[in-house]
Specification:
- With 202 residues, the chain is an alpha+beta fold.
- The chain has 2 domains: 54 residues, no CATH class; 127 residues, no CATH class.
- Helix content is 12%, strand content 29%.
- The protein is built from 2 helices and 13 strands; from the N terminus they run αβββββββββαββββ.
- The protein has a 6-stranded antiparallel sheet with strand order 3-4-5-6-13-8, with no helix packed on it. The chain has a 3-stranded antiparallel sheet with strand order 10-9-12, covered by helices on one side. The chain has a two-stranded antiparallel ribbon with strand order 1-2.
- The longest helix is centred in the first third of the chain and has 16 residues.
- It is elongated.
- The two termini are 30 Å apart.
- The structure holds 2-acetamido-2-deoxy-beta-D-glucopyranose (3 copies).
- One 2-acetamido-2-deoxy-beta-D-glucopyranose binds next to loops.
- The site of one 2-acetamido-2-deoxy-beta-D-glucopyranose has 6 residues, from strand 13.
- This is Wall-associated receptor kinase galacturonan-binding domain-containing protein.
- It is found in: Membrane.
- It is a single-pass membrane protein.
- It holds the Pfam family GUB_WAK_bind.
Length: 202
């Protein structure tokens, strides 16, 4: 009896703290779609049944999946506007996270940059003819507008800022990202996304 009681108390209090599903996606604690549930520091947005993450520059990114036990979530890279080589968050210079919030960009993202200016050639990025970005612009419909531009890729590791993926006219104008890219893997096996992690609550 006692065990059942404790179980129910735990269950009910957890259910109370947890936000309701957004569309078909569970919103695990501490993520919060509303001030009455979750932990409000971990704010995400349920807009018309689509769970979204808001950048520091006011751009919404769709949340594709959440791994509560690993404190990680994956957001969708912004679409590249059809027939052009501009990411849809170009006007906000790409993805920028609010440094005061408990989220950062994980070290599992391989970022591809497109339509870069020559100055990128002197950076430590891989802009060679074998860069992954070539596969993207040659084979993936979304990348076609970027074909024959200078493109590069890099693994966003811990040596870099973990709060930003930057694009701009004097650098590159579009980007995409693949989570956990395996060496030598081909474009048809890639998982597009930008993996974020959060500081565990409590
Ligand atoms: C590439 O970027 C330049 C600015 O650096 C811009 O003028 C040009 O339109 C872009 N190309 C495409 C295909 O979007
Ligand atoms: C660039 O990336 C490709 C694909 O991973 C790799 O085969 C190549 O060795 C890299 N080149 C440089 C200069 O790092
Ligand atoms: C990003 O967040 C993780 C866990 O929340 C933390 O361990 C890591 O140090 C952070 N990275 C940076 C560069 O702030």
């Amino acid at each position: 009896m006692m065990f059942l009681f404790l179980f129910l108390v735990t269950y009910v209090s957890e259910a109370y703290n947890c936000c309701p599903k957004c569309g078909s996606i569970d919103v695990p604690y501490p993520l919060s779609t509303d001030n009455n549930c979750g932990d409000p520091r971990y704010k995400v947005y349920c807009n018309h049944g689509i769970l979204e993450f808001l950048s520091a520059r006011g751009f919404y990114y769709k949340i594709l999946s959440i791994n509560r036990r690993a404190y990680k979530l994956i957001i969708s890279p912004p679409p590249i506007q059809k027939g052009t080589c501009y990411s849809s968050d170009f006007s906000s210079e790409g993805l920028k996270l609010d440094e005061n919030l408990p989220f950062n960009i994980s070290t599992h993202n391989t970022v591809m940059l497109f339509n870069c200016t020559d100055r990128l050639l002197y950076s430590p990025l891989n802009c060679s003819s074998t860069s992954f970005c070539r596969q993207f612009e040659d084979n993936v419909e979304e990348g076609i507008g970027c074909k024959n531009t200078l493109c590069c890729h890099y693994l966003k590791d811990s040596a870099m800022t973990s709060h930003m993926i930057r694009i701009r006219a004097i650098g590159c104008t579009a980007y995409t990202s693949v989570v956990n890219m395996k060496p030598g893997s081909s474009f048809d096996s890639w998982t597009y996304g930008i993996e974020l992690q959060w500081v565990p609550s409590n």
